[in-house]
Amino acid sequence: MPESNQPKQPKEKIVSTTAQSMPAFTPQAQRTLISVAATAVILSFILPWVNILGSNISGMDIQKNFPSYRLVWLVPVSAIITLLLNFAGQNINLLRRLAGLCPFVILAYALNQTGSDLLKIISVGGWLALIGGGALICIPNVRKPTNPS
User: Fold this and answer.
1) CA 51 vs CA 58, 62, 118, 125: distances in Å
2) pTM of the shown model
3) Of 39, 33, 21, 44, which Cα lies nearest the Cα of 93?
4) d(C-alpha 3, C-alpha 53), whole Å
5) Cα 32 to the chain's mean position, in Å?
6) Whole-number Å distance between alpha carbons of 100 and 104
7) Do 139 and 34 form a contact (C-beta atoms < 8 A)?
8) CA atoms within 13 A on the CB side of 25
9) What are the φ/ψ torsions at residue 34 (nearest 5 degrees)?
């Protein structure tokens, strides 16, 4: 085999150049995680959020029966919009973070209204909304690959 006149580059340099050009978080992984987190927030709305005197109350029940909590519907609506735009491939970095904040804003409002005892009665739906919301906030943005010069 004839050898090329070009000098061989050390493998370490090739590996580091390749590592620099690859994104830290792939777009497909980000979209999948956003879909899972948004779906968790949507499903949490029909699950029990709190257990008051042995009665499980879902986000849907809270929205219907407590006038001061009418804006609770923003939780599933913002998560549904996030999920649909995510499926459409749109840039939803700000929207998903706002959707993720909704459960925390409701928790802060409820803690202000009822006190810290609320944390003792949160049920599976409430925790799922908070976990899904936290994930929507914390999922990193996809970095564009850098082109080595």
Assistant:
1) 9, 12, 10, 10
2) 0.77
3) 33
4) 82
5) 10
6) 8
7) yes
8) 12
9) -65, -40
The confidence score (pLDDT) of residue 5 equals 63
Residue-wise pLDDT tens digits, 14-60: 444 444 555 567 889 999 999 999 999 999 999 999 988 888 999 99
More confident residue, 12 or 139: 139
Angle between helices 27-44 and 74-87 (to 10 degrees): 150
Tokens of 15: 């590996």
Give the position of tokens 């879909």.
35
Q: What is the rounded distance in angstroms from the CA atom of residue 14 to the CA atom of residue 35?
A: 35
**Phi, psi (degrees; rounded to nearest 5) at 139:** -60, 125
pLDDT value for 11: 54
CA-closest candidate to residue 126, choices 65, 66, 40, 67 = 40
Residue-averaged pLDDT of the chain: 85
Q: What is the pLDDT of residue 52?
A: 86
Q: What angle do CA 133, 143, 36 make, to 5 degrees?
A: 30
